[in-house]
Design brief:
Length: 276
């Protein structure tokens, strides 16, 4: 598991989703070494459980990937994922945010007022964590006017350029939603940090006791069920909660019991035909 840059820890990266109203844990999984490619799978599984047509998802910048944002958009999932800062360092130069994109003309306007255009060629940005697969495609925008302006670039040979990802429109739309609704996005900490804080601090769940994805998810599932049950007590009150358990779970448990005993019906109940 990658913690920070070159710091690596041996463990399991547990993913979980929680609803905003009751702070109940909805879905959980573990798999990749970080959160980069977890947004869409978790959001799709979470959407399927309550059977809703659309969903709003809040996540921190570790989940910010253009491909994941696109998958969410295609499945009627509205994302509020903290935008990532530009990868390029603009120390002493015009920051990338000062370059304005014109979607109608498909060009950038630099702070000096020059037009930056692309030749239409798609380049591929590789992802070492995905065994050489392309992480995304991008087009490069340049201008012949930019050669040695000290505020634009330090490269006199090539000049300043702006790379625009194939997911740029979706990334920008997500960023606009987050920036336009800062208070809404801040609810993320109240929603997701609540369950994990309780599990870690109050119940001591700081590590798993087993190995292997199936076993780990089994352990996590038991802990999450326990957490949800205590939340239900707080939401309904103990009397109403016990009543709900009897109404919802007793018929299911009865059927499970009869299915387990069904091979022994003739021995246990000779001469009696039991319908299961």
């Amino acid at each position: 598991m990658i913690l920070h840059k070159n710091i690596i820890n041996v463990g399991y990266n547990i993913q979980a989703s929680s609803d905003a109203k009751h702070k109940l844990l909805i879905e959980y999984d573990t798999g990749d070494v970080n959160d980069t490619h977890a947004l869409a799978p978790m959001a799709l599984q979470t959407k399927e459980i309550p059977g809703v047509e659309s969903l709003k998802v809040l996540a921190d910048k570790g989940y910010h990937t253009g491909e994941e944002l696109e998958q969410c958009q295609e499945n009627d999932i509205i994302t509020y994922v903290s935008p990532k800062a530009p990868a390029t360092k603009d120390t002493g130069l015009y920051p990338t945010a000062d370059f304005t994109y014109d979607p109608d003309e498909d060009l950038y306007i630099c702070p000096q007022g020059n037009q930056m255009r692309t030749n239409g060629k798609w380049h591929h940005h590789s992802d070492s964590r995905r065994k050489g697969k392309s992480a995304y495609r991008f087009q490069r925008y340049t201008t012949p006017a930019c050669k040695s302006r000290h505020l634009c670039t330090k490269s006199e040979a090539n000049g300043r350029y702006i790379d625009r990802s194939e997911y740029a429109d979706i990334i920008e739309a997500n960023a606009q939603r987050v920036n336009a609704n800062p208070d809404y996005y801040r609810r993320r900490q109240q929603i997701t940090e609540h369950p994990f804080g309780t599990l870690k601090r109050q119940r001591g769940f700081t590590h798993t006791n087993v190995r292997g994805k199936e076993k780990v998810l089994g352990e996590v599932g038991i802990l999450f069920i326990g957490y949800n049950l205590t939340r239900c007590v707080s939401i309904f009150g103990i009397a109403k909660f016990i009543k709900a358990l009897r109404e919802c779970c007793l018929p299911i448990l009865t059927r499970i019991k009869w299915h387990i005993l069904s091979p022994y019906n003739e021995f246990l109940f000779p001469g009696i035909k039991i319908a299961v």
